[in-house]
Amino acid sequence: MTMGSSTALVAKVRGRFGKYLNPIQLHNMVQETDTAGVLRCIRAIVGPDAGPFDDVVSCERELESWKRRRNAELLHFLDTKERDFIQSFLVQDELLELQRFLRVLQRQNHEEQMSFVLHSIYANTLNLTTDTTVDVPAYLATLQDKAYYRLLEPMVLNDTKAKDLNFDTLSVNSARWYYHRLREEAKSFSGNRAKVLNDFLGVMIDLRNLTRIFHVKKFVPQEDAFLQLQMIDGGKSIHGKELDTLVAQPLAMFLEQMEKTPYHALFEGGEVEYSFLPIATQRYLYHFCQRIFRTTGDGLLAALCFIVMLQGRMAEIRRILEAKSLGLKEEQMIQYLIEWRTE
To answer: What is the four-CA torsion angle of 14, 15, 20, 26, rounded to 10 degrees?
Structure first.
């Protein structure tokens, strides 16, 4: 990509930021009195490009499909190497959907399986099937064209039955494969772009590791002995011996140590409820990207940051829809949102 085309992409993406990520849009949604009002606000943002939706379920499905199209549009403005990197980055959503479908498949509930396939925007991408006679190995064998098939191949070759799937291992191996692939592709870039990408991936790995440590120590301490095996190498601020120490510490000491790191805001208030931690990590990554986005003249970095921030906004919209359906008041809702973060 030439400097001129990179500058043009930055301008285009910043225009989209104002169109789709304006904080006022969230304020308007929160002010609505019911879900119907929120749905109208969402339609005003996405326009006619999103398919029809008249309830929360159909809206969430259409939003995911709409988000995927917006991300795909950015690829047209990138050169081959940049496009490959963004496509590799976007594989994470596909991997998560695959794991969700495997959980459904192993439960052998035909009605649940039919519903999942019907509502998944990855139905074609992942060759999802409504055939309940297909076991896990047979299904996974249909994904041989995927870059991540080597993760799945052992389950096919060993004729693993659905009931034997170890989702913790699959999740860790998927994350390890995903970040290793991105790290390798990032090495092909140079200069400030390479440095920013390295920091960005390091922050993502830090957030993933810290979330896992907290979850195990607070909710499943019986897995603590296996926690080290679940860590991903390559964090930006938490790595090596420091990461080993955090893994070995009891929860109280872990939280105390967090106060001395860039991630102290994730755990403010002591032993926070886990339900808030995913929101806190989204908030951290959103603002990390926002700082890059405001100053970069690099088209690839602008596109990457926009993708992350749009993902965060979609999560906020889903939370507002859920909150409205539960009848939560404004002061209860805003604590779950990125843009209402008070410093």
So the answer is: 80
C-alpha 54/C-alpha 60 separation (Å) is 10
Measured between its terminal Cα atoms, the distance across the chain in Å is: 38
Residue with tokens 């909150």: 323
Residue 41 pLDDT: 96
* Residue 248 neighbours by CB under 8 Å, 6+ apart: none
Of 262, 255, 271, 257, whose CA–CA distance to 203 is shortest?
A: 262
For Cα atoms 107, 110, 114, give the angle at the middle one, nearest 5 degrees.
115
- For residues 231 and 243, the answer to whether their CB atoms sit within 8 Å is yes
CB 107 within 8 Å of CB 136: no
Is the pTM here over 0.90, yes or no?
Answer: yes
Q: How far apart are CA 214 and CA 111, in angstroms?
A: 35
Q: What is the pLDDT of residues 43-81, one digit of tens each?
A: 999 999 899 998 999 999 999 999 999 999 999 999 999
- How many CB atoms neighbour CB 317 within 10 A? 22
3-state SS, the chain, equals CCHHHHHHHHHHHHHHHHHHCCHHHHHHHHHCCCHHHHHHHHHHHHHHHCCCCCCHHHHHHHHHHHHHHHHHHHHHHCCHHHHHHHHHHHHHHHHHHHHHHHHHHHHCCHHHHHHHHHHCCCCCCCCCCCCCCCCHHHHHHHHCCCCCHHHHHHHHHCCCCHHHCCHHHHHHHHHHHHHHHHHHHHCCCCHHHHHHHHHHHHHHHHHHHHHHHHHHHHHCHHHHHHHHHHCCCCCCCCCHHHHHHHHHCCHHHHHHHHCCCCCHHHHCCCCCCHHHHHHHHHHHHHHHHHHHHHHCCCHHHHHHHHHHHHHHHHHHHHHHHHHHHHCCCHHHHHHHCCCCCCC
318: Cα within 13 Å, side-chain hemisphere? 14
